[in-house]
Amino acid sequence: MSDFSLALNEDQLTLQKWLHEFAVDVMRPNAEEWDEREEFPWPIVEQAAEIGLYSWEFMAEMMMNDPTGISIVMAIEEIFWGDAGIGMAIMGSGLAAAGIAASGTPEQVMEWVPQCYSDGSKINTGAFAASEPDAGSDVNGYRLSAKYDEAKDEWVLNGTKAWITNGGMADIHVVVAVVDPELGSKGHASFIVPPGTAGLTQGQKYKKHGIKASHTAEVVLDDVRVPGHCLLGGKEKLDERLAKVRRGEKGNAQAAMQTFEATRPAVGAQALGIARAATEYATEYAKERHAFGKPIIMNQGIAFMLADMATEVEATRALIWKAAWLGKQRAFKNAEGSMAKLKAGRVATWTTERAIQVLGGYGYTREYPVERWHRDAKIHDIFEGTEQIQQLVVSRAISGMRIE
Ligand SMILES: Cc1cc2nc3c(=O)[nH]c(=O)nc-3n(C[C@H](O)[C@H](O)[C@H](O)COP(=O)(O)OP(=O)(O)OC[C@H]3O[C@@H](n4cnc5c(N)ncnc54)[C@H](O)[C@@H]3O)c2cc1C
User: Fold this and answer.
1) Residue 352, Cα to own-chain centre: how many angstroms?
2) Does 180 lie in the same domain as 312?
3) Ligand 1 centre from 77 Cα, in Å?
4) Final residue in a domain of this structure, among 184, 214, 246
């Protein structure tokens, strides 16, 4: 087990500098344009691929060769400091990669994760499709079904997924489906839908409040047939697991909790990047802007607001890094991953709103980036488990009781 330390090693400092340069030189200058266009920023993702940032090798390096767990959250903070919409376009395929890594066999991971980034000739994307129009937080309510056609060794998927990052346009879709409706969320399994599979189409593309450069859409599956080997984890393991649940045996809830918790600090780091951007920007603005004959920062009313913002950013980073380290050691005790995500979403929403306040009328216009950051921040209270779902997880962890 590595010791917890807030000190970055040489490799991490080099990585941070490299990402900061990409954020300054490429992301910041393009952020406004892609927010306005509300389209997936292919040229920027191509640039990220050229330098090796948009690649499965980068993700593997972050996930497997860092005993501290901190590299990935530090990297994400830097990317989202650059821009959250473009950041999500770069990181979105990672959701599919993480879904494959969580449930797939080593062979499936090696086959499908690289294809979420490239097929050798062009840039690919991946999508992780769990949420449905009638069920987001309530995973027991998923309806998209997977039925096994034994004669052909194929699974047939039917239903609709909602709010899916890269949904419909992705080359690789990882789809969570109901294989046994009697068992609620314990009757789910995940499937790969390979590129070009008939029956999978994009439904509506959502017009969003923020992170507009990230593509979010419905995915409709109409008699989609995938080969048996596209069931993540394999049929034997699924049958064993379902039999256990039907016999009333408890699964390894602790292991499942550690896996879910481990992904949450990374989502918190996205929010942290936005919060830091807004705090830095507002501080510099307040030093330049004059009112009543002096810089507005000379008023405690402004300076104390900035002091609170900077304090919240630092506290949030400490919580995220600690949670990321705990996740790497698989040593969560009180749902610290959820705590980090909960705190970071709120801090990002709050600091960006305060940044608008510091900039006054200019902050409310699209000529300055703080209103965009405020729009981009809000999603972090919603996706990957809403504010209330994180509170539910934390309250259950600290009480040991099944809070409803
Ligand atoms: C931009 C964007 C990208 C997304 N990307 C993906 C993706 O790639 N893949 C994917 O699968 N999903 C994705 N989602 C879906 C996202 O995870 C869900 O929107 C989220 O989980 C909330 O589900 P919901 O929208 O159905 O809200 P609901 O679950 O209907 O919740 C509505 C409100 O009720 C509250 N609530 C619900 N249950 C409880 C409870 N038990 N106690 C207290 N309050 C409760 C919620 O906190 C929320 O405030 C994305 C969503 C957005 C907006």
Assistant:
1) 19
2) no
3) 23
4) 246
Q: Is 95 in the pocket of ligand 1 (CB under 6 A)?
A: yes
Q: Which helix (H) or strand (E) holds 309?
A: helix 300-328
Same-domain check for residues 389 and 261: yes
CA 94 to chain centre: 8
Task: For 31-55, write each residue's pLDDT tens digit.
Answer: 999 999 999 999 999 999 999 999 9
Whether residue 404 lies inside any domain: the answer is no
What's the CA gap between 324 and 318, in Å, rounded?
A: 10
Q: Report the nearest-CA residue for atom 12 of ligand 1.
A: 131
Structure tokens at 393: 């997880």
Domain boundary among 96, 116, 136: 116
| 240 and 257 co-located in one domain | no
What gap in Å lies between CA 243 and CA 180, rounded to an integer?
11
**Domain range for 357:** 253-399
Cβ–ligand 1 distance for 386 under 6 Å, the answer: yes
Measured distance CA(289)–CA(79) in Å, rounded = 28
At 159 the pLDDT is 98
* Pocket of ligand 1 contains residue 136 by CB under 6 Å: yes
Q: Is 165 in the pocket of ligand 1 (CB under 6 A)?
A: yes
- d(CA 142, ligand 1 centre) in Å: 13
* C-alpha closest to that of 89 among 122, 144, 48: 48
The reply to whether 36 belongs to the active site is no
pLDDT at 187 exceeding the cut of 90? yes
164 Cβ inside 6 Å of ligand 1: yes
**Whether residue 240 sits in one domain with residue 178:** yes
| CATH number of the domain enclosing 319 | 1.20.140.10
Are β-strands 126-129 and 172-178 bridged in parallel, bridged antiparallel, or unpaired? parallel
User: In total, how many domains does the chain have?
Assistant: 3
Average pLDDT, the chain: 96
Quick one: average pLDDT of 114-129?
94
Its pTM stands at 0.97
pLDDT digits (tens, 9 = 90+) for 250-277: 777 666 667 778 899 999 999 999 999 9
CA 388 to ligand 1: nearest atom: 47
CA of 385 to the centre of ligand 1 (A): 6
Out of 38, 240, 384, 404, pick the active-site residue.
384
Q: Which protein residue has the closest C-alpha to ligand 1 atom 27?
A: 136
205 C-alpha vs ligand 1 centroid, how far in Å?
17
Residue at 372 is within a domain:
yes
Whether residue 344 is contained in a domain is answered as yes
pLDDT tens digits along 316-368? 999 999 999 999 998 999 999 999 999 999 999 999 999 999 999 999 999 99
Element (H, E) at 189: strand 188-193
